[in-house]
Amino acid sequence: MVDHNTRGNRITWKVDIGTLDYQHFLPLFFDGLSETAHPYAFLARQGCHDLLDHGGSKILPVIPQLIIPIKINLGDGFDYSQQKRENIGDLIEETLQMFERYGGENAFINIKYMVPTYQSCVHK
């Protein structure tokens, strides 16, 4: 459910976020990032933020599953920044860079395997 208040919109979770199956829900929300219609775009974006904020050690094992959903949006030719003042391609690039920086020693190899056009932000 979406809570509309004076500080903005947020998702009202009916369960403790920490109890969610991150292997299932985090890729689901990342896949939704390609949505442009309201409220789906908001739910996908806010769901990703909420899960990443509360996931802790549950996030790292899911990173390989997140590459495919965000690969859909990388360089798709659409500029969503006009609508939401966010360029989805830039957000995806930043996300892949965070995966590479914090995903362990094999992060770059795994990202490059799934997204061949990705250029390392660490190994220049």
Fraction of residues in β-strands:
5-15%
- State the end-to-end CA separation: 44 Å
Structural class: mainly alpha
Overall average residue pLDDT: 80
The poorly predicted ranges are: 76-82
Task: Give the helix level as a range of percent.
Answer: 40-55%
C-alpha Rg, in Å? 15 Å
> What is the element string, with H for helices and E for strands?
EEHHHHHH
Number of domains: 1
| Helix count from the secondary structure assignment | 6
Shape: globular
Number of strands: 2
The main β sheet shows up as: 2 strands, antiparallel
What can you tell me about this protein's structure?
This protein is mainly α. It has one domain. Helices cover about 50% and strands about 5% of the residues. It has 6 helices and 2 strands, in the order ββαααααα. A two-stranded antiparallel ribbon has the order 1-2. Helix 1 packs antiparallel against helix 2 and helix 1 runs parallel beside helix 3. The chain is globular. The termini are far apart. About 5% of the residues have low confidence.
